Amino acid sequence: MDNINSKFIKAVEFLEKINVIISRKELAEKLNYKPSTLTDIMKGRSAINSVALQNFCKMFNINLYWLFYGEGSMFSDLSEIDETPETPIKELNIEQRVEKLETLLNVR
Length: 108
What we know:
434 Repressor (Amino-terminal Domain); 54% helix; single chain; globular; mainly alpha
């Protein structure tokens, strides 16, 4: 599997773990994919396209250097992240979850 795809999968799984991404269906819609296409990407059967990848990185502040080379932090300008948010964010829409993530990461 392509290294960029594997890093994308790792980022999605991490964002799911900390409840920033609640639904892969919602993520697929935000990336202009059908849910089945995102499933294929997550299972390594397809590659993410460059436009969706760029949008994903902008949405979640993903470090492109990490994505392409595997070095540095997953998130831009960050060295660590609090993986245990104080409050559950399941009821928030994706924009609110990104804002919560940025607050957790001290990027605002």
